[in-house]
């Protein structure tokens, strides 16, 4: 009797499991037929998606162009290639790259202005040399045309003595009036000395006095 009861219990469990399985299977739709009847349509990009894609591409191009610009600046500006110990081995930020570029451009402007001033000075020197050359050529030509002219002129020694006498007189007043304790004081004293001791009448008196002293050499 116990064996019969156990077999009956097992049979009941199996029949219930089969009924559950059949019920679950009947609830699942028949997808095989539906898959055979389904035709997938090609995906069509909407206008909104297309605009989003275009904007994304444009933004990427803009970012690439900016990155290339900063890379070019770092390659061109010498100060960007120098090691900055304040930031170590870190990559230069965009702000630092721009600041170094601005500093370098300002440096180039100053150098350009300095070179232009040097060129202007050299041009003036060249012009002065040309004028001197023309004058000396005229003097040589005049001397060649009149070789006897100038025999009665004052000798170079006498002219030097006249010049020396004038300079000695000027130096005496210069040495008494000028202080060299500082460059600022020297500059101020020089202008004051010129205004007081280099007036036309003062220079005329000095020249006349020197000529009187050297009149024995002149005649």
How would you summarize what this structure contains?
Helix content is 79%, strand content 0%. The protein has helices at residues 2-27, 31-37, 47-76, 78-81, 94-145, 156-177, 183-197, 200-213, 215-218.
Identify the CATH architecture of one domain.
Answer: Irregular
> Major beta sheet, specifics?
none
- Overall, the morphology is elongated
CATH class of one domain: Few Secondary Structures
Low-confidence stretches: 20-28, 30-38
Residue fraction in strands: under 5%
The residue fraction in helices comes out at over 70%
Number of strands: 0
- Mean of residue pLDDT values: 77
- Give the N-terminus to C-terminus distance in angstroms: 176 Å
The number of helices is 9
CATH topology of one domain: MYOD Basic-Helix-Loop-Helix Domain, subunit B
What is the H/E string? HHHHHHHHH
Mind telling me the CATH superfamily name of one domain?
Helix-loop-helix DNA-binding domain
Radius of gyration: 53 Å
Q: Structural class, from secondary structure content?
A: mainly alpha
Organism: Mesembrinibis cayennensis
Pfam families: HLH
GO molecular function: DNA-binding transcription factor activity, RNA polymerase II-specific; protein dimerization activity; RNA polymerase II cis-regulatory region sequence-specific DNA binding; RNA polymerase II-specific DNA-binding transcription factor binding
Protein name: Max-like protein X
